[in-house]
Amino acid sequence: MSIEENLKNIHQHIPANVKLVCVSKFHPVDAILQAYNTGERAFGENRPQELVAKVPLLPSDIEWHFIGNLQTNKVKMVVPVATLIHSISSTKLIEAVEKESAKINKISRILLELHVSKEDSKQGFFPEEIIEFLNENPPERFPHLLFCGIMAMATNTDNEEIIRNDFKTVHSTFDILKNRFWSNDAQFKEISMGMSGDYHIAIAEGATMVRIGTSIFGPRQY
Ligand SMILES: *Cc1c(COP(=O)(O)O)cnc(C)c1O
After folding, report:
1. Selection from 63, 59, 58, 29 nearest residue 44 by Cα
2. What is the pLDDT of residues 105-141, one digit of tens each?
3. Ligand 1, residues 67, 122, 221: which to mutate, most atoms within 8 A of Cβ?
4. Looking at the chain, which terminus has fewer C-beta neighbours within 10 angstroms, N or C?
5. How far apart are CA 139 and CA 103, in angstroms?
6. CB 21 within 8 A of CB 44
7. What single DSSP character describes residue 72?
8. What is the C-alpha separation between 152 and 176, in angstroms, rounded?
């Protein structure tokens, strides 16, 4: 099926209040343009080099979402071009993105990435870890960051109960963070969760953003 048909199908399963981020990593510029020409504007990349190479080749009204593992020495590549960084997964990164954003006079929109899956390899904060950090370093300490919500990946498994439970943990952690640190801040509102294999479950569990690649663009050639 074509990218156009894939997108049409996906939109039939995504409510209007859930934002679709088209994950274009490893796919060429012309695939992104095909999606763009159907009306998509939000694209997600996970490698800084690939992101900065694509940006100048594509329309300037695209919102670029950075969703990948970010090393602190690559922060300066990503901060100027990203509309939203989903993958803020350590206190070191919070500090680094604040510092770089201050340097270029930008308020960077970010999501805190949570580690809820059962795999050790996954990035992100454990819920108690980010709560403790924010207790000691309240959001006002980072004037160049706009905390927009949280992001997570579920365990990579066929077991729907495990996936659903991971997403429930994400949602309840969002509620705790919202109540404790952003109860008067309407900007802290996003729950970015759900990929090609599990976005139906993520939406049922309260996702406000889904990040879908394979179901739109087909398999990636690594
Ligand atoms: C690649 C990627 C996705 C998209 O995965 P698909 O299974 O291709 O839909 C979503 N989120 C993150 C963080 C990714 O790296």
Report:
1. 63
2. 999 999 999 999 988 777 899 999 999 999 999 999 9
3. 67
4. C
5. 18
6. yes
7. G
8. 15
